[in-house]
Amino acid sequence: MATIEKRIGKDGQQVYRVKVRRKGAPVLTETFSKLSEAKKWAQMTEGAVLAGRIFQVPEAKKHTISDLIDRYIREILPQKSRSSITMQTLQLTWWKAQLDHCVLADVTPAMIAECRDKLAQGDKKPRANSTVRRYLAALSHAFTIAVREWGWLDDSPMRKVSKPKESRGRVRFLSDEERNRLLESCKISVNPCLYTVVVLALSTGARR
Questions:
Q1: Could you name the CATH architecture of 61-160?
Q2: Helix 109-121 to helix 82-99 angle, to the nearest 10 degrees?
Q3: What are the beta bridge partners of residue 4?
Q4: What is the pTM of this model?
Q5: What count of other Cβ atoms lies within 10 Å of the Cβ of residue 64?
Q6: Is the distance from CB of 115 to CB of 161 less than 8 angstroms?
């Protein structure tokens, strides 16, 4: 597993280069000026390799996006409401179709952002920003679970992916006529507190 080679360094001095090999993994090398140090390092490194402390394959390189989404749908989604299960299964299936060939270690924010833009464009017409945000949220939670609970990743690539701004929608205020009609209706309500509550709500902007 470990080999030691004698070499002449750039300064003309003899050095000892150690190589530790393992099939399917990059070669570990180190150079020493003394043979005793080279042997000591080779022995320690071989021991670490045999103990599994070196050449361990990170979990992010063992699992693909498909693995992530399949496990999330199988283990996490059943804990949610029926409507959430239906909608998020559809959303996650879309992501799976885009990135299923990628191992988690290779997934970058740039790749997700490219898919986000493709999603926004839609097949026939553009999708609303709110829709795109929900798709991103579904994938983001899957990555979060993979980081926090499964140990498949050290960090989520979603943290660096921006979400499109969601429209505030239409902001409408009551006209003077509408407000007066509302208050008159409250005065004749069978609930004696209703008028006071509505006046308070209108005066404070309905803030708690």
A1: Orthogonal Bundle (1.10)
A2: 110
A3: 18
A4: 0.58
A5: 19
A6: no
E strand or H helix at 17, and its extent? strand 14-20
Q: How far is CA 43 from CA 33, 35, 57, 89, 193, in A?
A: 16, 12, 22, 51, 84
d(CA 68, CA 107): 12
Please write the tens of the pLDDT for every residue from 15-53: 888 888 776 566 778 888 888 988 888 888 777 766 666
What are the residue boundaries of the structural domains of the chain, listed by start? 2-56, 61-160, 172-208
The burial class, CB within 10 Å (0-12 / 13-18 / 19+), for 112 is: buried
Residue 108: strand, helix, or coil:
coil
Distance CA 128, CA 166 (A): 8
Task: Please give the backbone phi and psi of residue 190, each rounded to the nearest 5 degrees, phi first.
Answer: -70, -15
Give the CA-trace dihedral at 98, 114, 108, 96, to 10 degrees.
-10
